[in-house]
Write a structure and sequence with these properties.
Layout: E1 10-12, E2 15-17, E3 24-28, E4 35-40, H1 44-61, H2 66-82, H3 84-95, H4 99-120, E5 126-128, E6 135-143, E7 147-150, H5 158-170, E8 174-177, H6 183-195, E9 203-205, H7 210-218, E10 225-229, H8 232-242, E11 248-252, E12 257-261, H9 267-278, E13 289-295, H10 296-312, H11 331-346, E14 350-353, E15 368-371, E16 388-394, H12 397-404, E17 409-410, E18 412-416, H13 420-429, E19 434-437, E20 452-453, E21 456-457, H14 462-467, E22 470-478
Parallel strand pairs: 7-8, 7-10, 8-9, 10-11, 12-13, 12-18, 13-16, 15-16, 18-19
Antiparallel strand pairs: 1-2, 3-4, 5-6, 6-22, 11-21, 14-15, 17-20
Helix pairs in contact: 2-4, 2-5, 2-6, 3-4, 3-6, 4-5, 9-10
């Protein structure tokens, strides 16, 4: 593709901030391990400037009409679609996912801005019938205030867009810290927002040491809300900081998605589809289907189809059209996969596919399947967040539900069945914020997305995602006689 990876910078108070003696860290191409660019890291002075800008920017942006805010967001979506190939190039360059998958991510990210552009115009209040003559009672929705947003590396276009789009549609200003491993995608989107007419200072984008940035932002009285996507451990830490000043929180944390496959489905077809879904983005998806519980009568056929599909996936550079799965995002994920497999081998669990590094450079690992696993193995308890799936048979409905709900996580869960009564029963019994039956798509711009238990609370996306950045204000007026 005829694009070059850009020079990196911060966005502070509406201006680009480059090196200037700041500490930098390299951004690597996960397919080769080579350096793409050096990323400048924010100083405390940069954060002070961003906070001051967010404070002023909020006072300006909240007074912009919903219709005019929508114009900025819709224009941003249009620009993202016009420059889809460039954005997809950035996603593949710094994350490694196949280019076709990167294009789909860009389209969904653009859809976030488009959805919030329209939904922001429909943020209706209501009139509540009063009990007294001359009384008027109203409920209004108002922006929370300046928002601190934190997004991870595994969806470098979608996750920042979901957070920024919702906050801006509600009338909030935003300071966002995307991942230092995938900065160029988010910076390109920030540039498009500016081009679309977003006033200077309403959005700042910073990078740097996570503890320093989160501590600085969450201790500031300027910040009124936080939205975070990442691990449960970090989410708990941020929540403990945010609660000190009672900041509004939306936390989308870790998961370990179970899949229940009942014996009334086509085992081979479901096995192929399951493997295809599992290894999308090399399994680096918070809703990635991972723990497969398959009814005993079809287990062997399902496992064989899954295994054959996994082994047939071409692993390679995301820019190669033949690639079905790209590299992992960093060396840490490869090391984690090796730890999961070593633990499984130690416990005598069967390695049916993968279980090894591949390719001569970069962070590649083969699609991996562990079968007949036990609940004491590492992979059954810790989210792999990589190209590793585990499968075993079950006999009864209650056994499957017990297994699915065993862990303290509840982000996404899946079930495959052609029995309508069984589908309703499993949907009600599974403890997860997102229950997906007979397909694999969890999140769309217009649907709520969030977890329960230790997978977080609050929702992003849909009407709920807009309301996450809004306060409810009740106004009661009584006409006084004689005044």
């Amino acid at each position: 593709m005829a694009f070059a990876y850009p020079e990196l910078h911060l966005v502070v108070a509406g201006r680009q901030v480059k090196g200037g003696g700041r500490t930098t860290e390299p951004v690597l191409n996960p397919a080769t391990g080579a350096r793409l660019a050096d990323l400048p890291l924010a100083t405390e002075a940069d954060l002070d400037e961003a906070l001051a800008a967010a404070d002023v920017g909020f006072s300006v942006w909240r007074r912009v009409s919903a219709v005019d805010r929508a114009k900025v967001l819709k224009c941003t979506a249009d620009l993202m679609r016009e420059r889809r190939e460039y954005l997809a190039f950035l996603v593949t360059s710094e994350l490694g996912k196949p280019l076709a998958q990167a294009r789909l991510e860009v389209e969904q990210a653009a859809g976030m801005f488009e959805w919030y552009a329209e939904e922001g115009k429909r943020s209706y209040g209501r009139i509540i019938p009063s009990r007294a003559e001359g009384s008027r009672q109203m409920s209004l929705r108002e922006p929370v205030g300046p928002i601190a947003a934190f997004s991870p590396w595994n969806a470098p276009a979608i996750t920042p867009s979901r957070k920024i789009g919702g906050a801006l549609a509600a009338g909030c200003s935003v300071i966002v810290k995307p991942s230092e491993e995938t900065p160029a995608t988010a910076l390109a989107i920030a540039g498009m927002l500016e081009e679309a007419g977003l006033p200077a200072g309403v959005l700042s984008m910073v990078f740097g040491h996570p503890a320093m940035i989160s501590g600085k932002l969450l201790s500031s009285p300027v910040i009124r809300g936080i939205t975070f996507t990442g691990s449960t451990a970090i989410g708990k830490l941020l929540a403990s900081q945010a609660v000190q000043s009672m900041k509004r929180m939306t936390l989308e944390l870790g998961g370990h998605a179970p899949v229940i496959v009942f014996d009334d489905v086509d085992a081979e077809k479901v096995g192929v589809a399951a493997a295809t879904a599992k290894y999308r983005n090399a399994g680096q998806v918070c809703t990635s289907p991972t723990r497969f519980y398959v009814q005993a009568g079809i287990y062997e056929r399902f496992a064989r189809a899954f295994e054959e599909t996994a082994k047939a996936i071409t692993v390679g550079d995301g820019f190669d059209p033949a690639t079905g799965m790209g590299p992992l995002a960093n060396a840490r994920r490869v090391e984690a996969m090796e730890e999961f497999v070593a633990d499984a081998r130690h416990r005598g669990i069967r390695l049916s596919a993968g279980g090894e590094r591949c390719c001569n450079a970069g962070f590649f690992y083969r699609p991996t399947l562990l079968t007949d696993f036990s609940d004491d193995c590492m992979a059954a308890n810790v989210e792999p967040f990589g190209p590793l799936a585990i499968a075993r048979p079950f006999e009864t409905f209650d056994e499957a539900i017990l297994s699915a709900n065993r862990l303290p996580f509840g982000l996404a869960a899946y079930a495959m069945t052609n029995d309508v009564r069984r589908a309703h029963a499993v949907a009600e019994a599974i403890e997860a914020g997102n229950v997906i039956l007979n397909h694999w798509t969890v999140s769309l711009p217009e649907t709520p997305f969030g977890g329960v238990k230790e997978s977080g609370f609050g929702s992003e996306g849909g009407l709920e995602g807009l309301q996450a950045f809004q306060n409810t204000k009740f106004i009661s007026t009584l006409t006084l006689q004689g005044f």
